[in-house]
Amino acid sequence: MRANYKVLIIDDNLIDQIVTKQLLRKKLGITEISTANNGKEGIQWLTNYNISAEESLIILLDIKMPEMDGFEFLLEYEMFSEELKKKTQIFMLSSTLDPNDIKRAKNSTCVKTLLSKPLPIKKFGEMIYPDAPL
Prior knowledge:
By secondary structure, the chain is of the alpha/beta class. The chain has a single domain (4-128), classed as Response regulator (Rossmann fold), CATH 3.40.50. Helices cover 41% and strands 23% of the residues. The chain has a five-stranded parallel β-sheet. Strand 4 (88-94), helix 5 and strand 5 (111-116) form a beta-alpha-beta unit.
């Protein structure tokens, strides 16, 4: 049985938000998708979010954003409850070629992996639904 995922896309690019939403809906059947335009809005969304017992949260996090970038978001995220963090998977989603950004993302204990834009939906689906055929 597939996990019941809710997804939060934190990205300042509206086109990327739309494309990612469509991929999640059409290819993986994920319907509960929220968006935030930067890390600050993402933190606000998490502050207001109440995770249910049977729900898991996936955050697709861009690196480069105004107001609060992905790495600043991760610093704030560390202050959330262990209960929330235990039920959350963060995937950084970026088009960065900066080796420092790539290294920071890979070294973050909060980040499951760094994926390139646009979302590689087959690879992503295999990561979140390892036992289900896609």
